[in-house]
Amino acid sequence: MTVDLDGPEPLFEQIARILSARIADGTYPPRRRIPSEAGIVDEFGVSRPTARAAVRLLVEQGLVRTVRGKGSYVVDAPPQT
User: Half-sphere exposure (CA, 13 Å, Cβ side) for 1?
Assistant: First the structure.
């Protein structure tokens, strides 16, 4: 999956949706880290604030939790959609 740099949907929402799909399919299993902000910047070619906003959206959706100084982890039981 790639992001549509010229589309109307904000980049952070596109990235959050991609990461969410990876959580759902088990690419990022529960209690394991998702890519760091730097990793998201490298993979998707976006700015650090955009990467941070994508992770923040995943936190708000209850899919990940952030541990200061360690990173962001998939929660034990992501909410069912």
Answer: 11
CA distance 57 to 35: 14
Could you give the domains of the chain? 11-74 (1.10.10.10)
d(CA 75, CA 10): 25
Element (H, E) at 17: helix 11-24
Supply the pTM of this predicted model: 0.90
C-alpha to C-alpha distance for 8 and 72, rounded to whole angstroms: 27
Q: How far apart are CA 32 and CA 6, in angstroms?
A: 32
Chain segment 38-72, per-residue pLDDT in tens: 999 999 999 999 999 999 999 999 999 999 999 99
How many angstroms separate the CA atoms of 15 and 54, rounded?
6
